[in-house]
Design brief:
The structure holds two protein chains of two kinds. By secondary structure, chain A is of the alpha+beta class. Chain A is built from seven helices and six strands. Chain B is mainly α. Chain B contains three helices and one strand. In chain B, helix 2 runs antiparallel to helix 3. Classes of the chains: A alpha+beta, B mainly alpha. Strand 6 of chain A pairs antiparallel with strand 1 of chain B, so a sheet runs across the interface.
C-alpha cells in the first residue's frame, strides 16, 4: 500500500499516507479545510486516487471534502465505526459499480401520452354532462389533464424500472433507481456486481435498446462503489 | 481516471443539450448574492420557494379533484384560487425579471427542483 501511495498525490499535491486500525486503514492527506472546494481539478484528483486504489484493494470511497481535525481523530473514528466499515467492505468485496442513465425526449413522450390522458378526461366528462362551463372549471380541467399526464409518465417509468429490475436480478446485482424527470432524462440507475458480469450487463442494456426504441441508454463503469456505501459515521 | 468510462451508449449526446450544459456549466442554478444584487438574489430564492409550494398545493388539489371528493362549487372555487395564484406569480416573476427556468434549481443528482 505505502509503495503505491508514494507514486500518487492527494488534493493540492499533498503526500498521501494511511491511518490504520486493526485490519482496516484510511487513506488521507493533509489539507486546510477552508481551501477544500469541489473544483473540477480537485474532484478529478480525488476520484483518480480512489480508482487506482480500487484496482488492488477493497475500498469504501469517502465523500469528497471529508475532513477531520487530526490523524488521531481519524484513528478513533475508525475504531468507533469498525464493525460498520467491515460490514460494508464485505458487501462491496470483488464488486464494482455501473451507472445507467436512461435518456429520452420527455416532451415528446408526454405528447405521445397526451391522447390517453385526454381520453380518460373526456370519458369522465361524458359521465358528468350536467357540469356547467366556466373559465375556472376550464382551468381546473386543463390542470387535471396535465396531472394525469404526469401520472401516466410516472407509470411508464415504473414499468421500465420493473423490466430492468427483473433482468438485473438474474445477475444477483444490487440496484438503485432514481426517477429524474427532466427534459432529457427519466431514470438514473446504479448497479453493484462482479466485474466478470460486465458483458452480461451490456447484453441486458442492448436488449432493452431493442425493446424501447424511444429511449437512449448510457452505461458507464466500472466505478468504485460510490453509491453502495451505507455508513453513518459516529 | 480512465479516459473512457462509457461502456455502451445509444443516440448522440448532442441530442441532449440540457444534459451537456448541466455538466459543463452549473453556474445557472447558483444563487449569486453580492452587495449589488442582494434584492434580486433574495427575490429569486423566495420566489423559488413560493413557486414550489404553489406547485405542491396544485398537485394535491388535482389529486382531490381526480379522487372525486369535491363538489362542483368547490371545484369552481378551487379553479378561481389556483388561477389567481398563478396570475399573481406571473406578476411577481415579471416584476423581478425572472423566468420559470430561473426558479427551477438544479439539485445535481436529485434532478431539478420542479
Amino acid at each position: 500500500m505505502n509503495t503505491l501511495l508514494e507514486g500518487m498525490k492527494g488534493i493540492f499535491d499533498e503526500k498521501l499516507f494511511t491511518v490504520a486500525s486493526d485490519q482496516i486503514c484510511a487513506v488521507v492527506s493533509d489539507t486546510i479545510s477552508a481551501g477544500l472546494t469541489p473544483e473540477r481539478s480537485n474532484a478529478i484528483n480525488y476520484a483518480g486516487v480512489i480508482e487506482i486504489l480500487a484496482q488492488q484493494f477493497t475500498l469504501l470511497p469517502m465523500r469528497f471534502g471529508s475532513v477531520m481535525e487530526s490523524t488521531d481523530a481519524i484513528g478513533k473514528m475508525l475504531e468507533r465505526n469498525y464493525e460498520e466499515i467491515q460490514k460494508n467492505l464485505q458487501k462491496v468485496e470483488n464488486k464494482v459499480e455501473y451507472g445507467l442513465k436512461i435518456l429520452c425526449n420527455s416532451g415528446k413522450l408526454r405528447e405521445e401520452l397526451r391522447p390517453k390522458a385526454e381520453g380518460i378526461f373526456q370519458l369522465n366528462e361524458e359521465h358528468n354532462s350536467e357540469v356547467k362551463n366556466s373559465i375556472y372549471r376550464d382551468y381546473v380541467n386543463k390542470k387535471l389533464i396535465e396531472h394525469r399526464l404526469e401520472e401516466l409518465l410516472l407509470s411508464y417509468i415504473d414499468s421500465v424500472i420493473a423490466q430492468i429490475t427483473s433482468k438485473i436480478d438474474q445477475l444477483n446485482a444490487e440496484r438503485k433507481f432514481k426517477k429524474i424527470i427532466t427534459e432529457t432524462t427519466i431514470i438514473d440507475a446504479v448497479f453493484l456486481l462482479g466485474k466478470e458480469q460486465e458483458n452480461s450487463l451490456i447484453g441486458i442494456v442492448d436488449d432493452f435498446k431493442n425493446q424501447y426504441h424511444a429511449l437512449n441508454f448510457v452505461l458507464t463503469g466500472p466505478w468504485p462503489p460510490y453509491s453502495f456505501v451505507e455508513i453513518t459515521i459516529k | 481516471m480512465s479516459d473512457n468510462k462509457i461502456l455502451y451508449s445509444t443516440g448522440s449526446l448532442e441530442e441532449f443539450p440540457e444534459e451537456i450544459s448541466k455538466i459543463t456549466n452549473r453556474e445557472d442554478s447558483h444563487l449569486k448574492l453580492t452587495p449589488n444584487n442582494s434584492d434580486s438574489g433574495l427575490a429569486k430564492l423566495v420566489l423559488t420557494l413560493v413557486e414550489l409550494i404553489r406547485k405542491l398545493v396544485e398537485k394535491q388539489a388535482m389529486r382531490r379533484v381526480d379522487g372525486g371528493s369535491l363538489t362542483d362549487d368547490e371545484i369552481e372555487r378551487l379553479g378561481e384560487t389556483l388561477m389567481n395564484l398563478e396570475l399573481k406569480m406571473e406578476e411577481l416573476k415579471k416584476h423581478f425579471n425572472l423566468t420559470d427556468r430561473d426558479l427551477n434549481i438544479n439539485l445535481g443528482p436529485l434532478g431539478d427542483l420542479m
